[in-house]
Amino acid sequence: MLVLTRRAGESLVIGDAVVVRVLEVRGDVVRVGIEAPRDVQVHRQEVYDAVRDANVAAAAASEDAITALQGAVRKRQQ
């Protein structure tokens, strides 16, 4: 992990297209602005984790869903 010290108004660049700017520092809270191309997804960690968990849950097939699908396939084959 790279650790940097920045003050309000200062920024850092990631790659060629992402700029992270420190907008404000108040006590232990830091506000940052992120400039990135539209095709680059930017999420808070807790939102990213929730989306990832929801995608994993949606991709997992339940026994009921498998049974229903098997029944539908059998009906089509008859």
From TrEMBL:
It is found in: Cytoplasm. GO terms for molecular function: mRNA 5'-UTR binding. GO terms for cellular component: cytosol. Keywords: Bacterial flagellum biogenesis, Cytoplasm, Repressor, RNA-binding, Translation regulation. It comes from the Bacteria. GO terms for biological process: bacterial-type flagellum organization; mRNA catabolic process; negative regulation of translational initiation; regulation of bacterial-type flagellum assembly; regulation of carbohydrate metabolic process. SUPFAM superfamilies: CsrA-like (SSF117130). Homodimer; the beta-strands of each monomer intercalate to form a hydrophobic core, while the alpha-helices form wings that extend away from the core. A translational regulator that binds mRNA to regulate translation initiation and/or mRNA stability. Usually binds in the 5'-UTR at or near the Shine-Dalgarno sequence preventing ribosome-binding, thus repressing translation. Its main target seems to be the major flagellin gene, while its function is anatagonized by FliW. Belongs to the CsrA/RsmA family. This is Translational regulator CsrA. The lineage of its organism: Bacteria, Bacillati, Actinomycetota, Actinomycetes, Kineosporiales.
